[in-house]
Structures are given as C-alpha cells and as structure tokens.
Design a protein that fits this description.
single chain; mainly alpha; 2 domains; 10 helices; 70% helix; 0% strand; transmembrane; Transmembrane protein; membrane
C-alpha cells in the first residue's frame, strides 16, 4: 500500500511523530486486512452457492462458516474503528473517525452483511427451504460484487495514472484468490466440525482446491513477470522473498491437499493449509507494494 500521506485524508504535516506511526501501522495492516477480507468474501461465496443446492446440512454447518467469514471480512472495519493511531487507515476508502458517510465501496461491503444475516436466521435442518436458497444466492452474488467493485474503487481512487478501461477492470486475480483462500478456510472449518456428509470434504472438493491453487499461481506468476519487465531491479531484489511467499501461498497448501487425499485424518493438513496461504499472501502483497511503490496493491 502507498504511505498514508499520499491520501487526501493524511495526518497533518506538523504532527511528524504521529504521522510516522500512522504510516507504519497502515503499511503493515492494510495488506493484512485486505487479504483476510478477500478470503472471507470468498468463503461466503462458496457457502452461498452450496446453500443454493441445499447444502450443507444442519444449522451449525452453516452458522460456523458464516461466523468465520464475518471475522475475516469484518477485521478491517474493526481495525478502522479502533481509537488511536491504529485507526489512521481506511476501510474501502472510508475512515469512520473522519468521514460521516461511507464510500460506495464500503456500503457495498455492508450490503453483503444483509444476506449473511438472512442466512443465519433461516438456516436449519437440511437447508432445503426456498427462502434459505434465495438468501444463499444473494450472499454469493453480493460477495462476488463486493470483491469486484471494491477492487475497482480502490484502483480508481488511488492509482496514478488513471486506471485502464472498464473492460480491463474485472479483478480475475482477486476473485481467483478469493475462491482459493475462501475454499481452504471452508475446508478447514468443515474438517474441524467433523461433518462427514459435507460437500466441502472428499476428493472432488480437494481436486477443486488443487486446481484453484494451480490457476491462481499461474495468474500471479504472469503478473510478476509483467511487473519484472517494468521494474527489473526492484523485482530481482525481492526474488528470494518472493519464493518464500510462493511456497507459503501455493506449495504448502497444495502439499497439504495431496496428503489429505490419502490420509483419513485431514485435520492437520487443513489446519496448516489455510493459515499458510493467508500468511504467504500477506507477504506477497507487501512485496508488490515494495516493487510498485506509488502504485496500489490489487
């Protein structure tokens, strides 16, 4: 992320120490909460699509993933609302302590909470009620819309020069990672709950996660090559760190998924895969920021 001083809402110049503290907090926290939010919306999208099909069964099988997605998606908002210097960063362009009205991107993120609450109230039994399926469809659509628009709004507000035409704005890399990381989180939660009949267990789901890992890695590798052609010196300096983040985001989860295909107790594999992916992605996004400097992280 760019330093907070590049924002129109940056701290005054005469508060040098406070401004430096705010920039330090923002530089570390912003990529972190964005990674968590992307994963949370990806988890909600998968859960919503499963509810359209009448799965998963049971109230706990729905409420626990919903709550986990709420923690992931809402972490940045909680961080922005904390008093003190930690609240210097924005949440989708909105700073609660400074702005009276949320941005459109923040409002869209809020709108996603409505079908989430509807699903929480309707989930029970086999989740075959038409209203539950409708709420699940709304949850999936709103989650995908939030992923897409918040990406666009972030580029439109901070990227210099102006962003490319709207035909090039669909955030394929962001949506792929949301599906990948959200799927890993949903897999870990399902394994921890011991729901043997869940669609988020078994070989088909593990194959989907493995395929998403490969496709996401290919798209990110292409982005790094494109960035390396523009800024070869900065990219070469971070080559070792990039390998570490690549191992954490893709190699470790993929190995855990393959091990889970042959072992009968995949809890350890799932518990390693999801945190490794999130940690590696945070490191990867910081590397993007270090290379691009005044550009934004997608």
């Amino acid at each position: 992320m760019p330093p907070i001083s590049s924002s129109p809402d940056a701290a005054p110049a005469n508060d040098a120490n406070g401004s430096q503290a705010a920039r330090a907090v923002t530089h570390v926290a912003a990529p972190f909460w964005r990674v968590l939010a992307t994963s949370g919306y990806g988890l909600w999208a998968w859960l919503g699509m499963a509810l359209v099909l009448g799965r998963p069964d049971g109230r706990s099988g729905t409420l626990v993933p919903l709550a986990a997605g709420l923690v992931l998606a809402g972490f940045g908002l909680v961080l922005a609302c904390l008093p003190g210097r930690g609240a210097a960063h924005d949440w989708y362009g909105w700073q609660p302590y400074r702005d009276s009205r949320p941005t459109r991107a923040a409002l869209l993120a809020f709108v996603t909470y409505l079908p989430m609450l509807a699903v929480a109230g309707l989930a029970r039994g086999d989740n075959d009620f038409w209203a539950t399926r409708l709420a699940g469809a709304a949850l999936a659509l709103c989650s995908l819309a939030s992923l897409a628009y918040n990406h666009y709004d972030h580029r439109r507000r901070w990227l210099r020069p102006a962003p490319p035409p709207s035909s090039q704005q669909f955030p394929l890399r962001r949506v792929l990672f949301a599906g990948y990381a959200g799927g890993l989180c949903l897999w870990a939660i399902t394994v921890a709950q011991g729901q043997q009949g869940s669609p988020f267990l078994g070989m088909p789901w593990l194959a989907v996660l493995l395929g998403l890992a490969v496709v996401t890695w290919v798209t990110e590798a292409g982005a790094w090559r494109s960035l390396g052609r523009r800024r070869p010196a900065r990219t070469a300096a971070l080559r070792s760190a990039r390998w570490v983040s690549t191992l954490l985001v893709y190699a470790v989860p993929a190995l855990a998924i393959m091990l889970a295909m042959w072992i009968h107790t995949p809890l350890l594999a799932a518990a390693v895969a999801a945190p490794s992916c999130l940690l590696g992605r945070w490191l990867e996004q910081r590397q993007f920021a270090a290379v691009r400097r005044n550009d934004i992280i997608r």
